[in-house]
Amino acid sequence: MAVDTQKATKVAIVTGASSGMGREFARQLAKSDEVEEIWLIARRRERLEELARELPCATKIMCEDLTSASDMDHIAAELSKQKPNVTYLVSAAGFGKFGTWDTIPVQDNDAMIDLNCKAMVHITTIVLPYMRRGSHVLEIVSCSAFTPLPHLNVYAASKAFMQSYVRALRWEVRGRGVCVTAVCPGWVKTEFMQTAEKTGHDVRHYLGAQKPQTVVRRSLLANKCHFAIATCGIGAFVLRILGKFIPHCITMAGWAGVRRL
Description:
seven-stranded parallel sheet, Rossmann fold, about 260 residues, 9 helices, alpha/beta
């Protein structure tokens, strides 16, 4: 149910704002005339404070763990109290880990599912009532959503869930004039790579890795053009097409070869 936000402050809400794609989205949205204030949501307060100091617009720092029910309740309460006009929701919080079924601890698999899937749905559901016609939702997915990926199994499966959710959500909100896009890039030069390198994986080269500035700029443009999917690069676009027509056993074999190039 929509909330009356006719005279409210125009707010962008960015999760995962302490690093990577989330941080870059905050930087670029801070320059938009559609945004008067940005709510920066992540767990690392010092990172959020550092980012807030460099942004040219008002900010609200919310040091929250999106996998915590009480922290989600706090965000919902703040929305109910402020009743902002949310012009952008960017769900950039995410977690991935390389490995196989017997090398990734079960708690890490649970964490990927909780953050990538459950938290993304939760934050979207509580924010949508505060969005009006012309608002934008960008869910940061991955081109790994297009095919199963051994050694990145749970992460890729969580991203497939996200892509399916976003596609259906677009239909559910189309009458409200809210544009929803799944951002599905390939490798992006963020801390995700640094974290992955600590897990003992065997990816040797990040082929076609893009700068976060490029991916964010292209995804914002794709969303304004009402694209359902923003691949933001040639490699991810090719994988999207291959995933539609080529059996998964072949794409998985190709992925196994790419990891060793």
